[in-house]
Amino acid sequence: MTTIKMIAISPEETKDVLADELKALGATAIDQQFKAVYFECDERVFYEAHLRLRSASRLLRVIKEFAAKDERMLYDQARRINWGTILGEENTFAIEGVPGERGEGVMTANTISKRIREALQTWFEDKIGKRAVVDLQDPDASLVAFVRGGRCILSVDTSGKSMHKRGYRSDKHPAPIKETMAAAMLLKLGYKGDVPLYDPMCGSGTVAIEAASMALGKAALIHRKKGEFGFERLTLFNSKLWREVQEDAREGKLEAPPAPIFASDISANYIEAARENAVRARVEKYMTFSKADFFESKAPAPSGLLVTNLPYGERIKGEFGGDDESFFKAIGDKLKKDYSGWRAAILAAEDSPWKFIGLKPTRKIRLLNGSIPVRLLVFDLYSGSKKKTPLNESLD
Q1: Phi first, then psi: what are they for 314, rounded to 5°?
Q2: Is the per-residue pLDDT at 321 higher than 60?
């Protein structure tokens, strides 16, 4: 059985849940590095990782790791690779050079990519009699050469476009959270679909849609179109096994989520956009959408998990002036009044006056929403005494 060495890319703040996902899939030799998780797997888990991972943004298959103390050594080692096992003679390619350090004598990104390109093209000229073609816009193979400490890890991007692009979201919402971040938040909260979930300020619906997918046991990227994964263009592509993995994923999906999923927003336009996204994700029939003002509506269930990415700017003007104290105070008042027995997870900007919520978080999880430092604030809203409820126990 062939052992495949892989690198899964993710934000530094969520690599822990990515490592947990990989362990659950059956990956081995899992090693968390900076903004990445290294692992090993067999061919079936290789395909399952591309289909099922929720928090990874990119997957790289390691071609070779070798000494590369200077440009000449980098070229010589890359020249020895049997490139025909990766690329066909008609395949185009591009190379991303990534220097892992700075300073005098360190190869630049341009130098790294140039030397690998020369080695690859020389191999094809010698073996095939034809020069491999570079395509910087839409290459069949996107190669990544990471050089640090005199060594090079050469890999090929097998995920294709970023894995947050599930294929269901439109561009109607001005500041959506990425699908991978929404999933990572839910994973950090221990959500398994067995308690009611509610996003009262759902915007484009990403958090609730990712929750529905998780609750159904649905593979995260099952709806990607044919040819959108990077591995599908490579000579190492096992189309038969890939079809088997897809079929197994479809058969493993539940008929319905174990607990209901609710999404609401004060904006009718956003609710319509969220509903359309859910239709494209094929989870709309398992969800309940409503146009509602969080501050005037009641909790949709006696207990559950409330998760929301707080709106900002124009979204909260009107009664509130913006990201001001009154907005956060109103959130805290609402939680205390109507959400006793729930767990609430609020994603708020790090520099916002979130302390005016007036409740002590049981957890404060630092994350990055794009380039914005944020905190996922978790509040256990105890009913009566502070004894743990079954809900709280299930989410620890």
Answers
A1: -60, -30
A2: no
